[in-house]
Amino acid sequence: MIDISWLIEHGPCKKFAAGKNVPCPGGPKPEHRAMYVLLAGRVDVYKKSAAGGTQLFASLLKGDVFGGREYFTDADDCTYVAGIDSAVYVITEESFSDLSWSRPDILFEILRAAYMPLRKMTAASRTAQQEKAAQAAAKAPTAAPTAVKAQASTSATEAAPAAAKAPEATKKAIPETPSATPAPPTPVATPTAKAPAVPETKPTAAAPAAKVPVPDATPVVEAIANDIFENYQAPTPVVEVIEAKSKLFPEGHKHYKGIVKPEYMALVFPKDYKCPYCKMAFKDYRVFRSKLYECAPMRFDLRKYFTDFQTEWYDILTCRSCLFSTFHNYFTDPKPIQKAKIDKQLVETRSEIHLDFDDEREIDFVFTVHYLAILCSDGYPSMGKQIRAKLWGNLSWLYEDVEDGEMAKFAAEKAAEAYEQVYTETRLTPIQEQITCLSIAGMQHRAGIDNNLKKFLFTAKTLLAGDKTYAKLAEDFMFDLKMED
What we know:
Layout: H1 4-10, E1 13-16, E2 21-22, E3 35-40, E4 43-48, E5 54-60, E6 65-66, H2 68-72, E7 78-82, E8 86-91, H3 93-102, H4 104-114, H5 123-138, H6 156-165, H7 168-171, H8 218-231, E9 240-243, E10 254-257, E11 268-274, E12 281-287, E13 316-318, E14 325-327, H9 329-332, H10 343-352, H11 363-376, H12 384-401, H13 405-425, H14 430-447, H15 453-462, H16 468-484
Antiparallel strand pairs: 1-8, 2-7, 3-6, 3-8, 4-5, 4-7, 9-10, 11-12, 13-14
């Protein structure tokens, strides 16, 4: 694992705004060669196509190494573009040599990763790096604005150690306290002295040796500031809860203003879709499933937890023209829709609500598209009950996330009812039956009801042709219920 924090501290580092190219040209001269370690943000890789244009080849996340082919060869078939504001550690011939002496272990990890641009990181390593970034941000409440060129700051206690090791000229950029002025030059002998004596200095513990070369600390400060700026999270705003008025929402649903997840944008990418209802083309986001890492075991109600992401925020696609909404697979693999069953409701709903597709995604947007999808599920007579069951399950989890216990129970009960309908009216494979039984039991438990809950768990546990993973989950759930009794 590459020590990101060490690279941030020692540099050299650069920051690229969203949409800017990260230069990896290759070439015969040292200044032509560079590769990078992504410290924060996302970098999209575009590759030349056979038709002569470019196409998105991959997207890199924090900790990934890129530009290795350009560094060691003259390859130039890839273009690297910052997908969002990003910070990188720059590896040139000079820094390559420095790393080989100072941290050969890090250089080894970089070289090993240089040929794996889509290197996966474990959930534990990603979590550890996030905790380091959060601690750095928490320790940096204030600093003199002249100390760095970024929109972040370092605290006096963080700046002081760097200033103590830097030469006097560098100390001007790193004040020891927020109100301190740059240190004056070392006093020299008075003009009346006849002999050019060695300059008189006041002995201090922090004074560096005059002839010891110390690298410029400015890149270090800028790197730390950039990392803090990239990982800085503004204080969570007070959530404004407003009772919803539209007929689209059930009684008790509220608007939860101020809940956003901008960090989720690093794990989605734009994609073109065609609405199966109105046939209009539109753009929306799709999740990088290959870059999701489960950070906890699957829960008793089959909810999965991922590092820095929850899929419910991007499960539903909504047409910008007609507001038809459903799960992704019904857009990519359209099924026949009975439009007459939902035409009137969609027209009424379009007059009642407004969705801003271009603004930052909020939890209210997520709730709204889920309820639109429930409305539109009536257009699928054969699959509608499966769609509604999954949607109500998602809604129960989303209400849980905003700490609305009553609505979480309400949605869980609706999900349990929908899954029971699926169980009794649909022909299921053994594994589908296991999943349905576990979903019924899990949602009943969340709703605080018991309609043969243990019977469904027993079925999931003992189904002969079922999956061992689900059987074990049912067995563990039964044990937990027994302990609660």
